[in-house]
Amino acid sequence: MKRTRPTATLPPVQRPPADGVAVLGTGRLGGAIAEALLAAGHPTCVWNRTAARTGPQAEAGARVADSPADAAAGAALLVLCVGDFQAVRQTLSAAGASLAGRTVLVVTTLTPDEARAAAAVAAEHGASYASVPFMAGYQAIGRPEALLLCAGPREVFDRHQETLRALGGDVRHVGDDPGLGALFEAAVVGFLLEFWAGYLHTLALVRRENGPTDAFASVLQSTLQGLAPLLPVIAGQTVSGDYDPETFGRLDYLAPMADAMIGLRRSRGIDTARLEHLKGLIDQRLGLGFGGEGLASLIEVIEGSGDGGAGSVG
């Protein structure tokens, strides 16, 4: 009887669970992300350079990985929440070949150029990539009002948006360019810094007159609610070049208002540098004969293209 030799069998390829997620970096934000994923029922693995800091997530049911490569091996989706671009690049390189076929979402705050460079590193290892800035503090993770931006290929967003909704109720795809998320995040932070600086200057003026700051805050709150709808209108004007003065007034009307505000603050010993900067922008447009344009036309000066633009001569 002829005996047949047993054929060697290869072990089955271990594919990560379709809803498996690895969170790399378990600081306050990364830890909150991992805990929200666990609460939503996603098999979750965590890794941190200092393993002891994964304790709360391990107690909540997360597997603790020994390395970035170990974390990537058991997950279809990796969320990086490490210190900076250098740490992102090092973590991706450490995961290496284990990234193949995975999706990498980077929460770490990066510049637009850094986000694009990180996407290139992920692609070198065969991974899809998107930047996912959180437009709120770590305390808001998992709440319906939390806003997340996703910048990267649309198919990445479509594939993982339900997982992202475990982290926040407002999830938006902002474009295929991975640098857009970082750009929007930086722009919002800059806006908020200028907004709060302006608010503190107005509070200082009210306080100089011993005015009730709580009543003023309530008035300003109501005023701002009416201004929010103007944001997309003004953005559209900067694209079209049609600086309709009906939106927020003609520049030649706004100029004396700015002078009056500067004079009032100066008389009360309040810093006027920010208002004087604004008045300088207005004066440049007036000097070019565009007094009949609206406030949005200042974009021409801000961008350094102040020698032209649509609008009537004031």
Tell me which oligomeric state these chains represent.
Answer: single chain
Helix content: 40-55%
Unreliable runs: 1-14, 308-314
What value does the Rg take, in angstroms? 26 Å
Structural class: alpha/beta
Strand segment count: 8
Q: What is the H/E order?
A: EHEHEHEHEHEEHEHHHHHH
Quick one: biggest sheet?
Answer: 6 strands, parallel
What's the domain count?
2
Name some characteristics of this structure.
elongated, 2 domains, Rossmann fold, 314 residues, 12 helices, 8 strands, disordered C terminus
Structure description:
With 314 residues, this protein is of the alpha/beta class. The protein folds into two domains: 20-184, NAD(P)-binding Rossmann-like Domain (Rossmann fold); 212-302, N-(1-d-carboxylethyl)-l-norvaline Dehydrogenase, domain 2, CATH 1.10.1040.10. Helix content is 48%, strand content 11%. It is built from twelve helices and eight strands. The chain has a six-stranded parallel β-sheet, with helices on both faces. α5 links the parallel β5 (103-106) and β6 (128-131). α4 runs parallel beside α5 (112-124), α5 (112-124) runs antiparallel to α7 and α10 (251-267) runs antiparallel to α11 (273-287). The longest helix is centred in the middle third of the chain and has 30 residues, at 179-208. The termini are far apart. The model is unreliable at 1-14 and 308-314 (pLDDT under 50).
